[in-house]
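Hey L., structure's done. Input below.
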Amino acid sequence: MRKCKKSCIFARFLIYLAMRLFQHIGEYTLLMGKVLRLPDRQRMFWRQYSRELEKQGLQSLPIVLIISVFIGAILTIQAKTNTENPLLPTYTVGLLTRETLLLEFSSTILCLILAGKVGSNIASEIGTMRITEQIDAMEIMGVNSANYLILPKILAFVTMMPMLVIISTAVGLVGGWAVGAFTDIITVHDYLIGVQYAFNPYYVWYGIIKSVVFAFVITSMASYYGYFARGGALDVGRASTNAVVNSNIMILFLDLVLSKLLL
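Output:
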């Protein structure tokens, strides 16, 4: 009897989770249908777009530079430490650093980091507008609030993310070069040979394609949770947390899918 009762509770819990999942998917799809339309006022859209380029792209540049240079240095040191083998060629360290930056860090890990900065900012901004009834006022005036608020954010971050990925890769390689230039862990000559050895240009495009997809996921999911926030300040904080957590999960899932499809 107890086993039957527990199994019924577990089944109800699974049904509840499935219903919530389908509800979120439906609301997200309908919201994107309202967002991905031609703006009613082109001048206003481009003004908002330029502001979002600065807010999401240029203001994210300092953290990208700082993280990338240290990650490049750390990857170089760890690669050298873990490849202390006379059978391995001397260029292995530079090769490993370059491939790691191109394939994973500058696209996936960087997007996971920026999801915390950009995603939480978008969710809290739109969520605050929702609970202060600014979005409701737009709807009363006949403005497509989803298109007006969300589309410039999505397009701006999708535009800037490939540039941030390229900058991150370059700065990470400079960080690895600095290890060879200012320490005796590896010589600059060996490092540069590894960076140039068997370079595959497709890996650059692979990282850019992933970054575009992840940028759309970050901004659209953050906008979704902020747009449907209800209640007060605590609910805005909860929406920001849900946006970051769920976008990170989706990024990791899509990273697996895209790695299987593109590589």
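The longest helix spans residues 92-131. The chain has one domain: 36-262.

-- N.
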